[in-house]
Amino acid sequence: MGSPGYRRYGLEEWCGQGSDRPAGAAAGRVPDPAGGAVTEVKFYHNAPDRLRAACVITSKAVAQGHRLVVFAPDDTTARAYDEQLWTFQPGSFVPHVRANSPLAARTPVLITRSLTDLACSDALLNLAPDLPPEFSSFGMLIEIVGQAEADRAMARQRWRQYKALDLPVTAHDLGRSAS
What we know:
By secondary structure, the protein is an alpha/beta fold. Helices cover 29% and strands 22% of the residues. Strand 1 and strand 2 form a beta hairpin.
């Protein structure tokens, strides 16, 4: 499954390993008994470095043909994530732009502070400490939780909010997969 760096982050669960859909096909939305579809939420917790984990997940998603929107709560976070995408893995390139770029329609990774008026994407990666607005328009929502207690406390609150909305929520321990 790719480089050992990906295995360390336990991303095979999200990236389609062992699924029944063709390689590169978009993940389907979880069916809602009422007839609609619901957003599937995946928490990757115990990340030693949240932005690096976000970059690894982003790189793997793009390699599998997915489109991803990255919700950054502020310009500082957006810039740090953008810079880390350029440097986290020597010799690699993950195509990404800000959502307001003229190249946004042709780029698999969009970095944004607003989720309104975006082209359809497979997944939303949330770098904000709160629930992202309009997340229900995405088939999958990815949350990355660091090791700091404050980060964990905010993630627990988001987990409870997603569960209260009856969304399917799963947890993946990045700390355990790193050993």
